[in-house]
């Protein structure tokens, strides 16, 4: 399935920096994300690389955790769940809902932000008492 992946200028700059240090013979021959030999990455080589870095750092996680973390951070940053679904490449929300779990505080915040009652009833503004000293 083909999809468009939007990136921020900071990401584009990081990609340009990555491309600038690659060997000249890789130009137009190697994919953007590749092995140390310029060959395409696959889920096994990516997982092996993550495992190697985890050993060096004395930690452990699965590559899928990065996708999960991005999803949660995107939603908590006010990202739209349907936009997330499209970015992840899913045709419906079923898979997105499986690993994106919102906490009660996330749900409470969303409710207070987006509740239609905010547009129906006028908001009360609190005034603070000021000591007349």
From TrEMBL:
This protein's record includes keyword Methyltransferase: no
The protein's GO terms of the molecular function aspect are: DNA binding
SUPFAM superfamilies from the UniProt entry: DNA breaking-rejoining enzymes
One biological process term in Gene Ontology: DNA integration
- Supply the InterPro entries for this chain: DNA_brk_join_enz, Integrase-like_cat_sf, Integrase_catalytic
Question: What are the entry keywords?
Answer: DNA recombination
Name of a matching Pfam family? Phage_integrase
Q: Which residues form the Tyr recombinase domain?
A: 1-112
- Record's keyword annotation contains Cell membrane: no
Q: Can you tell which superkingdom this protein's organism belongs to?
A: Bacteria
Q: What is this protein called?
A: Phage integrase family protein
- Species for this entry: Paenibacillus algorifonticola
